[in-house]
Every structure is written in C-alpha cells, then in structure tokens.
Specification:
Blueprint (H helix, E strand, L loop, with lengths): L6 H16 L9 H5 L6 H10 L5 H14 L3 H6 L2 H8 L6 H16 L6 H4 L7 H12 L8 H11 L5 H15 L5 H14 L18 H5 L16 E11 L2 E6 L10 E2 L19 E9 L4 E9 L12 E6 L10 H11 L5
Parallel strand pairs: 1-5
Antiparallel strand pairs: 1-2, 2-3, 2-6, 4-5
Length: 354
C-alpha cells in the first residue's frame, strides 16, 4: 500500500470520509455502511445502471432501472428475453446502440456463467468501454482501477488547475486518478468521486465551502473554479429535415421495426421519409393532414420533422423499408417509441391534433 502521507492517500482519505457521511442513496448502490458490514454490490445492477447512465441523468434513468430489474431480475433473465421487448422498454433513454449492446452483452455474460471480475475482462464485452469497465470492476469487484467519467474529470482538472483542453489530457487524468485509488476501498472511492462531481463540484455552481478537497484545490485558490475543465469550442450541429406519417388504420397506428443498422436501429418507429440536409416536399396523399413540425436534437445533428396524419388505407407511401406493426390506439401511451417519434405522436394526441 502507498505511504499514507502521500498527497494521493490524503485525497482519497478525505473523499472517503466525506462519502461515508454524504453518499447518495441510489437503488443500484450498496451504502458505504453496508459495504463495511460485508454486503456486496450486485454486478448485474452495477452494470445495468452504468449502461443506462451513459448520457442520461440519474432521475431519468432510475425509473428505467427499476422497471428492468422488475421485469428481468437477473442477467440470465435479460439474456433470454425477446430483443424487441428490451428495445421497447428502452424507448426514451436514447442512444439505442446501448440497448442493442446491452442485449448482446447479457447473452455473452449468461453464456460465460457470470460477469468477468476484472476491467480487462469486462472491456471485451459489447458496449463496455474504458470508463464502464473500470466502474464495474471497482464497484462490483473491488479492483483497484480508476473509473473516470465527466464528473471525475471535472473534480480532477479543478483540483490541479489543468489548463490543457480536455480531449488532450484524458489519459493524464486517468493516470492521476489511478494513483489516488486506495487499495482497500476502490469501489467506494469510485462512487465518492462521482458523487462529489455530481453534487458538490458541479459545472456551474460548485459548493466549495463543503467540498472535502477545497483546501488543496488550485482552481479555488485561483478563483477560477468554473474555468475547468477546459473544453474546445462547440461546433454548430448540422440540421436535417424530413417528414413522418401518423397512419391510422382501423383502431391502430402503423409503426415499423427499424433496420438493425443506422440511427435508432432496432427500435419501433413511425414511417418517415429520408432525413436530408435540405427540406423537400414529401409525396403525401391529398387527404393527409398536416399537424405541425417537431424538433429533436441527436448527438451529431438537429432534426426537424413535418408531421402528417392520414386515415387512408393507401397512405403509406412514406414508409421506408421495415417490418410493419400496428399499435392499438388504446396503447399509444405505453408503446415503446423513441422520443423523436413520441414528439410527433404528441401533436396527434394534443387537443389541436385530435
């Protein structure tokens, strides 16, 4: 073990003391008090929560987590479920490649008889990258490895006043945090760093008065807390345009299972035109009704969709290739549609659209 008087040991000790008193209560987490009594985290819960929390807030992810573990209590249950059920249950969490990888990963874990217990083994699984492998290995299996997410990057760059732009120093940050990870409580340390960034060392209004690292923090000493981490200028997102059709056939709405490649792959969606860089007039039937336009922001572009509704039997000219399904109108509120299509559906279900 490292010398207890090294700065890294002091940092981890201060953070862990703070965590013991201030840890968030989360449905997938074992509290530091219970861990001290020998209670082990459930690797399935740790993995599932980490995948859900990629690009998603804790309040938003929590209800999905609770629903998943109720429907599929173990990784074996998840692995044996129909993939379409998982894709539908994921609707609204976004980044749908995560759901496809989640299913593939569950199947591999089930075939192996359980989770690999090291970051080196975990990173070989679908959908698990450097951060996630470190987080699962540390939290679920107490491996002495770093788990560096955006919260940890913020804490570290402020603590050390690291002036270089963030993309250029990611490896440096990971090496620094790795040197701080204690041998005896790596899982609690990983969660403590995440909690510190999420609740105290926040992006816009850090609460330095209660921070366990306020004394050695160089950014605080300089009065430059919000200058870190240094990020390159944001690029303007390109814009794409398209149309979506709400085709009512009898007592149902036509949907389609999107292909397994491309954006929103494998999800249940609504018929659309291609999404192009410039607006174009869709080939619509004369009795199609225009409901309005919705906007949705993806990672790499902004999308504007013109929403049309038709009850004509031959109104499916807009449909791209895909497996058609019929969603009963009585079940629209629970249909597993991604957010972009849910926005279009909201126009139909609003008083103006119905």
């Amino acid at each position: 073990m490292s010398d207890t008087h090294t700065p890294g040991a002091e940092i981890s000790a201060n953070i862990l003391r703070w965590y013991d008193a201030s840890a968030r209560s989360l449905p997938w987490r074992v509290s530091p008090q219970d861990r001290a009594k020998g209670v082990k985290p459930n690797p399935y819960h740790v993995w599932l929560s980490e995948i859900m929390l990629q690009q998603t807030t804790i309040p938003h992810a929590t209800r999905y987590f609770l629903d998943f573990v109720k429907r599929w209590p173990t990784v074996d249950d998840l692995a044996s479920a129909p993939r379409d059920d998982i894709m539908n249950a994921w609707a609204g969490l976004g980044y749908y490649s995560r759901a496809r990888n989640l299913y593939a990963c569950a199947q591999e874990i089930s075939e192996q008889g359980g989770f690999p217990e090291t970051s080196a083994g975990l990173i070989k699984l679908p959908g698990i990258g450097p951060y996630t492998s470190g987080a699962i290995a540390a939290i679920a299996f107490d491996e002495q490895v770093a788990a560096v997410d955006g919260n940890v990057e913020r804490v570290t760059t402020r603590l050390l006043a690291m002036d270089a732009p963030l993309p250029d120093i990611k490896k440096d940050i990971k090496a620094i945090v790795e040197s701080w990870v204690p041998e005896d409580r790596p899982g609690d340390f990983a969660q403590a760093m995440m909690d510190l960034g999420a609740t105290v060392c926040t992006p816009r209004s850090p609460d330095c008065l209660i921070c366990p690292l306020s004394e050695p923090c160089r950014a605080r000493a300089l009065g430059r807390q919000t200058d870190f981490p240094v990020k390159p200028p944001k690029k303007t997102k390109p814009v794409r345009h398209g149309a979506v059709l709400l085709a009512i056939v009898g007592d149902g709405l036509v949907a389609e299972r999107r292909a397994d490649k491309g954006l929103l792959a494998g999800t249940l969606g609504l018929p659309t035109t291609a999404w192009n860089d410039v607006p174009s007039e869709p080939a619509i039937a004369s009795d199609d009704r225009y409901l309005g336009r919705v906007e949705h922001v993806f990672t790499h572009f902004r999308l504007y969709l013109d929403v049309y509704m038709s009850e004509a039997a031959d109104a499916l000219d807009l449909i791209a290739e895909g497996e058609e399904e019929l969603i009963p109108l009585s079940e629209l509120s629970t249909a597993g549609l991604p957010s972009v299509f849910r926005k279009a559906l909201n126009l139909y279900q609003s008083p103006r659209g119905t």
